[in-house]
Structure formats: structure tokens, C-alpha cells
Amino acid sequence: MNKMSIREILRKIENEEIFHAVADDYSFSIKIDDYVPYACAAIHDGHNFSKDLWSNCLHTAHDRWYEEDPATGTMISSLPITIISHDSRFEYDLNRSPEDAIYDTAWGKKLWKHPLSDDLKQRALDKHEAFYRVVLQLIVKLEELFGSVVFYDLHSYNKNRWDREVPVFNLGTSNVDQNEYRQAIEQWQEFLNKMTLPIDQKVTCAINDVFQGNGFFLKYITDNSVNSLVLATEVSKIYCDEDTGVIYPEVVHALSDQLKYYIQSHAHRFYDRHHTQDF
Description:
It holds the Pfam family FGase. This is N-formylglutamate amidohydrolase. The two termini are 34 Å apart. It contains eight helices and eleven strands. The model has no long low-confidence stretch (mean pLDDT 96). The strands form two sheets. A nine-stranded mixed beta sheet has the order 1-2-3-5-4-8-11-9-10, sandwiched between helices. It has a two-stranded antiparallel sheet with strand order 6-7. It has one domain (2-274): Aminopeptidase, CATH 3.40.630. It is of the alpha/beta class. Strand 1 (2-4), helix 1 (6-14) and strand 2 (19-23) form a beta-alpha-beta unit. The protein has helices spanning 6-14, 51-54, 61-67, 72-76, 118-146, 178-193, 216-223, 249-274; strands at residues 2-4, 19-23, 28-32, 38-42, 81-85, 105-106, 109-110, 149-157, 169-172, 205-207, 228-236.
């Protein structure tokens, strides 16, 4: 994987080049092994937290980890097009608009001992903007090539926070065109319900149960595309110990293997149904 400027990444996408790159500030990485009508994102995978923020932050490293989506990047890493964030959402949240991307409080707890300087805020917002410049270029190129694209927007959530039984997978679709994409949504739910894991856990997938799909990533792609679907997909943290931070590699491996199979199967069916429309 090569370190690249945003300009170089944009140029490579425009020229339809195959490449692996990490942004030159190490904020995110992008991989394109083949130009296909689907892409995968893990925008909350990151745990990097700038050193000049440490002493001012009231949250511990585990506090931050608890609200991040660890290992989601690994779960999609074998797919042909991936974009994975490496910075913590506690510095700037890619699933929020620029106006709301920098936290003052996080999950009911004040985040900073002292207000951030304007320079630190601007640095974070510049990273946010750069990420979405790349996302936009990817949208434009994939729709140019294929007419219709599906983005798999993978997140995780803390099951222990709920005082009721919650699904292993949750699809957030409240900001998706239900009439246009109902079949694709239901088929993705059906595929996720088929998963098996090496733990004593029944796999279920619900729609708009614990989350409704109100993230900025989904809204940005929907607003800036012609015929693309974003499937905001949450997996509960059955793959780790939420209290200690221990990751269960056998569960992550099983999720990675099956997500690769089902994403490819689903994406090809989606393309067969949608690519001829208005293209």
C-alpha cells in the first residue's frame, strides 16, 4: 500500500487505475482491485487519535474504542473496493455533516477539558472534506461505468447497551427509497439471516430496529448519486468483549468470509436488476 496525496488518489480513480493507497496523513485508506458496481466502507473502524489531543481529552482510550467500530475494516478487507477510516470518530465523525462532525460531548459525557482551538477544528474538518472528495469521485466513476451502484456501509454497535434482545444485524433504511429498492433491502436482510457463526448465537437481521440509517455517509451518497443504494449495515459486537476490548478472531474471520460471499452475491443481483434503468 502506497502513501498518496488526495489529488493522486482522485487522479487514479478518474483514470480507472488499480491501486492500494493510504492518504498521506494516514486518515483513511482506499483499495481498488477491480472496478465493480459495488463498494464497501468502514468509516468508524479507526482508532487513531492525534497526540496533541490526548491531554485535553476526558475520555480514555477504551471509552473511545467502545464507541468505535473495531474490526469492521477487517470484515470487508477482501472485497474489491474498500474505503476504511483510520482516524477515531472522536477527532471528527465521518458519519456526521461537517457542521456536527466535531464532538463537544460524546454519549452524555463532556469530551474536552478545554475547547478545541480553531486550528485543530479546521485540521479535522479538512480531513473530513478530503475523505468525501474521494467518496464523490468514486460515486461518479462507478456510476459512469455501471449506471447503478450499491455501497455497503458497515458499522458495529454495543449490544450490552440495550436491556432487551437485539438483532445481530440491523439495516437502517429510513433514508432510502423504499419503492425503488425494497427488493434489494429484503434480499440483503435474507442473506444476513443465513449467516452462521462459531459461537452460541442465533443470527438475526432486523430493519430499522436499533438504528434507522440516519448517517451522513448514506445521505451524502444518496444526495450525490443518480442511481445508487447505500445499505447501512450494523453488526452487534458479538465479535469482541465490549468491556475489555478483546477481539474474537474466529468470529471476525467468519464474518469476513461470509460477508465477502454474500456481498458479492447481493451486488450482482442488484446490478442485474438496476443497471439497465436510465443507462
